[in-house]
Specification:
Length: about 350
């Protein structure tokens, strides 16, 4: 068990902070490091979390990384991280195919985990990981940052207010030309657009529609030369007549919009990957209202703060992304890949 699980009073009275270690030193690890450094300087978070360590498979790489962000500790192996009793929370920043194995190892070593999306490569891995998490008594939560951002509540409030009437349709897309990243085209690493960028429009739709399961799904994808999905489109049909469309690609750029269509107007969210603004339109297609998004460090701070607070309160999941939501999205993505006939080598 981590030293601070369920010990908020003790932590606050002794000035103890949740020590965060990063497992992996790739691109997303740099983004998280900038976040942790910013949080340590921000009065809102400085008493809550501390940037503590980074682990890589090479000590020189880890040392250089730690020096760049002024982390006090660097490990030349993941095993060293697991053995350090001062680590309270591990951010898993490796390719999808490694998430389950590495997160389970952390939990068994008494470390709480914040697992970068997609949570795992498939739903079976997710169930195995969540089973270990449940028996460990520790926190395990998915780091899909849009679930934790203030923009989520802001959008929910607008929809619930009835300002755009009754919602009948939702659309969301996220596309970037990112095939230059080898992990994204490698089937052995669970590459493809779906698990990396496609997870965002699916989560946007799931949040707007409050976790409803579709009754019917129509989906297709265009394969990359390695066999993973290069781009895909999915239409979800719900029992009450609502429908939603999710599109993602790793070949091209898109507007990244998320739109909620109602009987009295519609809501347009600029950039579902990190909502920058929300505009409400009437039936005349004129902007009725513009909603600004609060200033942020990077946007990752919300998931880190939620995880740290959950640890101090002795919780095993974060309310913004409970295990049931993570599993529902993983099962949905499995069903899409099944329709496409896309199987990763390690699933054979």
């Amino acid at each position: 068990m981590s030293r601070l699980n369920g010990k908020r009073s003790e932590a606050e009275s002794q000035g103890l902070k949740v020590n965060v270690a990063i497992l992996g030193a790739g691109g997303i690890a740099h983004a998280m490091s900038k976040t942790l450094v910013g949080m340590a300087k921000d009065p809102k978070y400085s008493a809550l979390v501390a940037p503590y360590a980074v682990a890589a498979r090479d000590l020189d790489r880890a040392t250089e990384f730690a020096k760049q962000y002024d982390f006090p500790v660097a490990y030349g192996s993941y095993e060293e991280l697991l053995a350090d009793p001062q680590v309270d929370l591990v951010y898993i920043a490796t390719p999808h195919s490694f998430h389950a194995e590495q997160s389970i190892a952390c939990l068994k070593a008494g470390k709480n985990v914040l697992v970068e999306k997609s949570f795992t490569a498939n739903a079976e891995q997710a169930r195995q990981l969540l089973d270990v998490a449940q028996s460990s008594g520790l926190l395990c939560t998915e780091a899909i940052w849009t679930r934790y951002m203030p923009s989520r509540t802001m959008l929910d409030d607008i929809v619930a207010s009835g300002e755009i009437g009754e919602v009948h349709s939702v659309s969301a897309n996220l596309c970037y030309p990112i095939t230059r990243k080898e992990r994204l085209t490698d089937p052995a690493l669970a590459g493809g657009a779906l698990l990396d960028v496609g997870v965002y429009p699916l989560n946007f739709i799931d949040m707007v529609l409050q976790g409803r399961r579709p009754d019917r799904i129509v989906t297709s994808m265009q394969p990359y030369e390695t066999g993973v999905d290069a781009q895909n489109s999915t239409t979800l049909y719900y029992g009450d007549g609502v429908m939603a469309v999710s599109t993602s690609s790793m070949l091209n750029t898109s507007d990244r919009d998320g739109v909620v269509w109602g009987t009295e107007g519609y809501i347009k969210c600029q950039n579902i990957n990190n909502i920058e603004s929300i505009d409400i339109y009437g039936n005349d297609h004129q902007i009725k209202r513009h909603v600004d998004i609060p200033q942020q460090i990077t946007g990752y701070e919300y998931e880190v703060a939620s995880a740290a607070n959950a640890i101090l309160d002795g919780k095993q999941e974060c309310s913004e992304m409970p295990h049931s939501d993570t599993l529902r999205i993983m099962e949905l993505m499995d069903s899409l890949r099944a329709e496409w006939g896309l199987q990763y080598p390690f699933e054979a």
